[in-house]
Specification:
The chain is mainly α and 144 residues long. It contains five helices and no strands. It has one domain.
Length: 144
Amino acid sequence: MNRPLISALLALAMLAPEGAVLAQDRGAVERQRLLDLAFTIGESHALRQVCEGVGDQYWRSRMMRLTQVEKADQAFDAQLRDKFNTGFAARQGQFVECDDASRQAEHTVARKGQALSTRLAQSMRNASASAPAPDSVADDGAAR
């Protein structure tokens, strides 16, 4: 279950100030964290599909929402999408059935995503603690 990553993405979205620095204008460390998060969401997408089926688009829709919230320019948006696809490809086919091993991998990736999201949220909180929050990246209704 990826509840840690869902919670972290929700916190990230709620802390992202409206009119804040655009994704492509962030510092190098934050940009890399966003790219690492996109990769991790791609991994989560592949691992979730092992148990939920190939039609499951839960993490893909969260990635699309993340790119909307970040308002990345075309070049950085392409990098985010490429990282998502690379993460997906890295985990796709790794597990042929839903079992303890696939669920453990999903949990491990969720912890990695949670750590990345928490660090991004902390840096955004430091940048602008009092600005209004945008819509959420995650919605609890689609969670497992």
